[in-house]
Write a structure and sequence with these properties.
By secondary structure, the chain is α+β, with helices and mostly antiparallel strands. The protein has one domain: Ribonuclease HI, Chain A. It has two helices and two strands. The chain is flat and about 25 Å long.
């Protein structure tokens, strides 16, 4: 499963990314909502 994560804390993003990878998911990290929305439109 591909998962998009939005958070402004780099440590939190690393933790979530590590957890999702360990569960076999592909995660995409974003620190800005605008970047996340642009990615979803593609």
């Amino acid at each position: 499963m591909r998962i998009a994560v939005l958070d402004n804390g780099p440590d939190q993003l690393k933790l979530i990314n590590h957890t999702m990878l360990g569960l076999g998911h592909e995660s995409h990290m974003y620190t800005e909502g605008k970047a996340l929305l642009q990615s979803l439109r593609r």
